[in-house]
Amino acid sequence: MNDENEAHLRSFAEAVSEGDRDTALSADQLAERLTGCRAILSLNGIGAEEITADVLEAVGSIEVICIAHWWAQLVDAAREAGIRVTEGSNANTIAVAEWTIAAALMGIRKLPAFDQALKDGSPWAEPRRQVGLLCESTVGLVGLGRIGWYTAQCFRALGARVIAHDKVATKADELGLPLVALEELLQTADVVSLHLPVTEETTGMLGSREFSLIKDGAIFINSARAALYDEAALVAELSKNRFTAYLDVFATEPLPLDHPFRTMANVTLTPHIAGDNAAMFLRCAREAIQTLKDYFDGKGLRSLQYRYP
Question: Which of these, 22, 23, 74, 147, is most buried using a 10 Å CB contact count?
Fold first, then answer.
């Protein structure tokens, strides 16, 4: 929240702040404080454990809860109390997609390798013309949730051929994307990017066999979760220097100082920031506030789903 977002909220709602309070109100205090409230704007669904179904039912006047970023406990409480809940912003989707596109471009154009070669004293970092173009590449997206769905549109807008692996065909059909088996995607894609949630089905879905299928010279990107694969198997395959990796998430975070990834020339690392930056959080709040304004203006309640651009 900044001054601009707060002014936007106050333009149509009576916003009440507890200031710098850092301790939770009791259930009774919270219910009394919320008396007459029609909506809750949660800038972060995490950390709202005190807003329980019992509290919501005791207040009795809340019509909707709008979450700007993340879901967590507040969603369950709202559903138990029969209150409509929506994620009023999808700014995190844009942030992760941008990071993924940046990683793909850096990998295809070999920017980190050229940077290091020049810093190491190479005059021209030869063979400097042995790079690719994104618009001549096949991008394989493992997962077509909202981040994968939006990322697919970004890649296609830049001219890439996009294929996908997902157990649900709806999103692929909507975009006209070919759905392929995981093995085919790994074997044919120049860029492999993970966009799956961690579930019982997806945990550890990539191991030594799957990593061995990735083609030589490919780019492997993970902005999702490290639990999707056997990290030791990825380290072992990357040690063969067949392909490069751009990783934002790790099995242990922060990444241990002695982890092999830290010394591998074909691995580029970022500290779990693909979807985490100040501009993203401000956009989350701005869009969630607008979602509430639209609701009170009689335009209905919707969860945002972006199309590119």
Answer: 147
Q: pLDDT of 8-53, one tens digit each?
A: 999 999 987 787 888 888 999 999 999 999 999 988 767 778 889 9
Q: Which pLDDT value is given to residue 233? A: 98
Given a cut of 50, the residues of the chain with pLDDT beneath it are: 309
Examine residue 240 and state whether it is found in any structural domain, yes or no: yes
Instruction: Identify the H or E element spanning 268.
Output: strand 267-269
Q: Quickly tell me which residue has 């209150």 as its tokens.
A: 83
> In total, how many domains does the chain have?
2
Range of the domain at 232: 133-269
3-state secondary structure 116-183: HHHHCCCCCCCCCCCCCCHHHCEEEEECCCHHHHHHHHHHHHCCCEEEEECCCCHHHHHHCCCECCHH
* 62 and 17 share one domain: yes
Provide the annotated active-site residues: 225, 253, 272
